[in-house]
Design goal:
By secondary structure, the protein is mainly alpha-helical. 84% of the residues lie in helices and 2% in strands. The protein is built from ten helices and two strands. The chain has a two-stranded antiparallel ribbon with strand order 1-2. A hairpin with a 4-residue loop joins strand 1 and strand 2.
Length: 338
């Protein structure tokens, strides 16, 4: 089962809430995309002496749209919170049931500290990263598609230039982030080993102190801790290149847009209002573009812990006689027979 299917099994526990989340995202995108278009109409009417516009009526409509945008955003956040809370509760319940249904050999293969790390740390990381993706990505995708559509309506050539710029920026970001999945996966694995070793040390502290073996145990813990340090330093080096990229993309895109759009205005191909609308759409587009690195990080982090959780969940529990239980927790399905 790949990462996407695993995530879908996780969030599809409440399909009704997912549908409500999508409705809120559509309403948000529609309201947000309408504001630059209204600005274009107002500026063109003000600049062109042959047109008239009632600015008082215009501002009332604009404020109404902003109020609708705020309400849709509030509803989206509340709905997303309900989705994650319900799905996390369901997921943890399945995970607990899966572990408790195992026979003794399972607990001999997996150390207590490692199991605790997976159930607590790995599960929390997975829930946090998926929550960010579920809450933000649907609306951001709708905004990106809507912005590009509106830009094409204003001027296809200028829209094409923006799209090409976005593709190049995304390719650079993807290239810089290639090492992240393996680094994060390795860090999680070493973290589990460190937690297991620390748990064993605490559990056997009397023996350790009795043989005055503290220095040896601390050395073993320090070795694992240094491995995590090296991996996190490598991860930080990658992020040091990726973090400033979003700001540079936004500023460079704005400079190029004004340069190219100014030539189009001088050539009579677009109006001043259209260029202002383009700038506004670029500002809107800069938000999901600027968050792309964070979403990429969330995907990679969740993929790293997904592999570990999936390995645990794919260890099928034995068939228990009498009042037996078969828990297919890896697929989030279960059947109970009395």
């Amino acid at each position: 089962m790949n990462w996407a299917r695993f995530v879908w099994r996780y969030i599809s526990y409440r399909k009704d809430l997912l549908a409500a989340l999508l409705v809120c995202a559509v309403a948000m995108a529609a309201a947000e995309l309408s504001i630059p278009w209204m600005i274009k109409k107002a500026i063109d009417a003000i600049v062109d002496e042959t047109r008239t516009i009632d600015l008082n009526a215009w501002v009332v409509v604009a404020l109404g749209i902003l109020a609708a945008l705020y309400l849709a955003y509030v509803l989206l956040l509340r709905t997303a919170a309900h989705v994650i809370m319900h799905c996390s509760y369901h997921f943890r319940s399945r995970l607990f049931a899966h572990i408790h249904s195992q026979a003794l050999p399972f607990f001999q293969r997996h150390r207590t500290g490692e199991l605790m790390h997976r159930v607590t740390s790995d599960t929390k990381i997975f829930e946090t990263e998926i929550a960010r993706l579920v809450r933000d990505v649907p609306g951001e995708l709708l905004v990106v598609v809507g912005v590009i559509s509106m830009m094409v309506m204003l001027h296809a050539g200028l829209a094409l230039a923006v799209i090409v710029f976005m593709v190049v920026a995304a390719a650079v970001t993807s290239y810089l982030g290639r090492p992240l999945p393996s680094i994060r996966k390795s860090a999680q694995r070493v973290g589990a080993h460190l937690a297991a070793r620390f748990q064993e040390t605490i559990a056997g502290v009397r023996t350790v102190q009795g043989f005055t073996n503290e220095r040896h145990e601390l050395s073993r813990l320090d070795d694992e801790n240094r491995k995590i340090l090296r991996l996190e330093l490598k991860e930080g080096k990658v992020y040091a290149f990726m973090e400033p990229l979003s700001d540079m993309i936004e500023l460079l895109g704005l400079v190029l847009l004004v340069w190219y759009g100014g030539h189009l205005i001088l050539g009579g191909e677009i109006t001043a209002g259209a260029l202002v609308a383009f700038i506004a759409y670029m500002e809107i587009l800069a938000r999901p573009l600027g968050h792309a690195e964070a979403y990429y990080r969330s995907v990679q982090s969740s993929r790293a812990v997904t592999d570990r959780l999936r390995e645990l969940l794919e260890e099928m529990p034995p068939f228990l006689g009498g009042g037996h239980m078969i828990a297919r927790v890896g697929d989030f399905e279960s059947t109970w027979a009395e």
